[in-house]
Amino acid sequence: MKSFDQIFQANRSWVRKKEMLDKDYFKKLAMGQQPKYLWIGCSDSRVPETEITGTEPGEIFVHRNIANLVNSNDPNVMSVLKYAVDYLKVKHIVVCGHYECGGVKAAIDNLHDEYLGDWIVDIKKTYKTHKKDLKLYGDERTLANRLSELSVVKQVEKLCDTAIVQNAWERGHRLFIHGWIFDITTGKLKTLMEINPDNLPDDILEAIGGEKV
Ligand code: CO
Questions:
Q1: Domain boundaries, the chain
Q2: How many other CB atoms are there within 10 angstroms of residue 205's CB atom?
Q3: Longest dimension (CA), the chain
Q4: What distance in Å separates the CA atoms of residue 206 and residue 213, rounded to the nearest whole number?
Q5: Given pLDDT bands bounded at 50, 70 and 90, which one contains residue 196?
Q6: How remote is the CA of residue 32 from the centroid of ligand 1, in Å?
Q7: Has residue 208 got a pLDDT over 60?
Q8: Is 96 designated active site?
Q9: Which residue of the set 5, 22, 24, 46 is catalytic?
Q10: CA 25 and chain centroid, separation
Q11: 178 an active-site residue?
Q12: Which of 189, 190, 186 is nearest to 49 (CA)?
């Protein structure tokens, strides 16, 4: 048996399982999507968002790239963000990083590689900014994991700076933004930060011309 035959077999058994629980499952699925979440995660095969969050098809709109980066010059992530916020009207955006991230490690090693080296330039910058403090960790693993966290926080801040998100808040769209990290060694998700639309930081309020009540 070829390895991909196994995938088709598993697919057919998944279809049977779903239809056994609800014979109209796929008819309903085809009618449309109303996901509450936009997930921006790493392409890493060990971080499958639906599996680790116990969610079903239709619940999470997904964008994944190497090291879960939000680069405003990346039309891919920006079009996903635009569609999720303006059309699907998601309630939550999650940036989820993870420990043992190859993209983060490559940034620490200052990898030069066509495409890859350029892609992770934002993490290289974060590393440079925090290098002094990060070096205090001593062991490379803890250092890299901490850099993963710092990068997630930065991606959340970058999301808050986008016109897409700011316009949504200006319109009164109650959009939460979360920074999470997935610990591959335990399987657990951890919250790093949360931006609550009812309690926006002053600098964001100023940017969108709103006032604190
Ligand atoms: Co990764």
A1: 1-31, 35-207
A2: 14
A3: 65
A4: 13
A5: very high
A6: 30
A7: yes
A8: no
A9: 46
A10: 27
A11: no
A12: 189
Strands 92-98 and 60-65: unpaired
H-state helical runs in the chain: 3-21, 25-29, 49-53, 75-82, 102-108, 116-119, 121-135, 140-161, 163-170, 202-207
Q: What would the two tokens of residue 44 be?
A: 């890493």
CA 118 / ligand 1 centre spacing (Å): 16
Confidence at residue 212, expressed as pLDDT on a 0 to 100 scale: 59
Taking the whole predicted model, whether its pTM rises above 0.70 is answered as yes
Residues 6+ apart with CB under 8 A from 123: 67, 69, 103, 104, 107, 147, 151
Token pair of 106, please? 């490559």
Q: Which of 16, 22, 24, 42 is catalytic?
A: 42
Calpha distance 162→72 (Å, rounded): 8
Q: For the segment 96-155, what is each residue's pLDDT rounded down to a tens digit?
A: 999 999 999 999 999 999 999 999 999 999 999 999 999 998 899 999 999 999 999 999
| Integer CA distances (angstroms), 65 to 3, 30, 33, 40, in order | 25, 26, 22, 8
Q: How far is CA 150 from the centre of its chain?
A: 14
CATH architecture assigned to 35-207: 3-Layer(aba) Sandwich (3.40)
Single out the catalytic residue among 63, 96, 98, 160: 98
C-alpha 155/C-alpha 12 separation (Å) is: 38
What band does 1 get if pLDDT is binned at 50, 70 and 90?
Answer: low
